[in-house]
Amino acid sequence: MSERVEPVGRERRPEPPEQPAKPPANRLADETSPYLRQHAHNPVDWYPWGEEAFARARAEDRPVLLSVGYAACHWCHVMERESFEDDATAALMNAHFVCVKVDREERPDVDAIYMDAVQAMTGSGGWPMTVFLAPDGRPFYAGTYFPDEDRHGMPAFRRVLSAVADAWRSNRATVEEQGRRVAEVLAAAAEFPAPEGAIDEALLDTAAAGLLDAADRTWGGFGRAPKFPPPMVIEFLLRTHLRGGGRAADALEVVTVTLRRMAAGGVHDQIGGGFHRYATDGRWHVPHFEKMLSDNALLSRAYLRAWQVTGDAAWAGVARRTLDFLLRELRLPGGGFASSQDADAGGVEGAHFVWSWEELAEVAGAEVARYLGATPEGNWEGTNVLWTPVPAPEFAAREGLDPVDLVARVEEARTRLLERREGRGRPGLDDKVIAAWNALAVSALAEAGRALGEPAYARAAEAAAAFVLSALRRDDGRLLRSWRAGRAGRPGYADDYALLADACLTLYETTFDPRWFREARALAEDLLALFADPERGGFYQSGSDAEALIVRPKELSDTAVPSGNSAGAVVLARLAALTGEERLRRAAEGAVRAGGEGVRRAPLGFVEALNAADRLAGPSREIALIGDPGDPAFRALAAEVHRRFLPRAVVAGAAPREAAGLSGEIPLLGGREVVAGRPAAFVCERFACGMPVADPGALAAELDGDARG
Predict the structure, then answer these.
(1) Helix (H) or strand (E) run with residue 699 in it
(2) What does the alpha-carbon distance between residue 542 and residue 545 come to, in Å, rounded to a whole number?
(3) pTM score, whole prediction
(4) What is the pLDDT of residues 663-699, one digit of tens each?
């Protein structure tokens, strides 16, 4: 999957000498972002993004130095220690530039615009991102991490600063022309040409073939190194498998290899559960150690759905451990979830997660240590990143062990190792609550709660959704991007609205509480009102009420998380199937088409759009459950639906009296009654319904009659 990474090596750096006292606080001390507050005592005269900084740049005819990063980014911390905490470097920055710090997670619009500029100017991108702007916001020079001295073929940051300052003074015409050209490129890149052809199974088959041909058949995933977990691709390939056809078995094979290799790798936290950001190698062994809420929410759902399709209990186990990590380490008081856990501990990347042979053997025993891939000399830079490269049955046979006993010993050792590791203290936490990422967690927890029969997961999903809908809303109802320590952030983006609407719809299909349907519907209407492009289709990233930037960004491609455009297509397609409203379906189709030919020709960059296209290609199924949701007989029917991955289905449920009242909002419920006093299920296609069934076995047979869902 296309993704931006830090373009540098993996060396570990010693901590700098302890400073006697912090410099005075700068303007970032008043910000809500933990990432910005980390820079509050830099000697740099930092500004947050805003008019104050650009007004000064215009008044003093200075360029703006824009630095973008995020709290869990290891190389952001390195550049801070090397340059932003260095008095000489800071003096150079303060003398020649107006310096602006941005948290990419709080300002994805600013990040998207200037990351496109970095990629246009350099051919690659990553964080920390460093961009030099004219006072009107047009970028004219850019890069990512710059070291404190010439290294890795990169110039020292102080040399870059001096050269840019000199060019601004002595070669202004060239600088301004460069900025004009880049701004034109950014404006053109905001739109894709309209695609040719229909949104149909031929489109899906073409995209699936491209993905399958690009897959790593040995280690799973896509590409060599660095390698990112591809949860949205896994969903699309599961959909491909369920559709049937010539590549169905092939799709499931790629899914299986990828899930197995990732679960066995060091990218998967073998002790505490959850997944690190990405692997620095092609075998999923050595990770970049930060843990993101968004990644783990998406991956838990990918493993859960694979279990639903295959019945392989191992995948359900990975999903449970990943969700348990979210609940144990990222959940905040009030029910919301923190954004990320840091890669660094004590200034050293991965220090919290790696083990010496001696400590590992002491706590777990030598045999378990070997099973976890450890060696006395270490498997990474003198330490051990835990992974299970040899499956338990094979390892047990090689070592002359009983495989059942080995698995039991490993599980017991994991508990002891987690207790020991907790004594080290956890890595730093970025405790801001992001609406879109919390929505992903809500969806994952709700699906897992109903599929695995774990009410605690569903309750956690409801609590998180309720928190976001309360704490991250203005009095006028405008959804906000983030919240931290009682302070709300700026207005939300398209992905916040689309993903939260989708999460509320998933909660409705889990609990059948009409509150969640109404929240989903209201958020979807706001998405259309604030973000829709009525001329070209799809959704802008920022709302019509947002500040003007050099372009109004349209984030069309899917990276580590679904774009707002693709997420909007998904939720509108789901709502259209529930309500029968053609305008919602047309808006969903417009969002898929907004991706242009990229949807067909570059499927790795538009996978969530393809998942929306799969739902739109049909045939859809609408399932109505009528009866008291607290009745065990009703729950038995719901369980038959929920234990399956039915990617083209929607579900509604209510007691008979409530169903009549809800039919104006959810026509699927209209005219439905119980059967002989028993809860009943109606399975429909485009609102043409079969006979009601009251027996779970009969419902199972009907659902299995077309496995595509």
Answers:
(1) helix 696-704
(2) 8
(3) 0.94
(4) 999 999 998 999 999 999 999 998 788 899 999 999 9
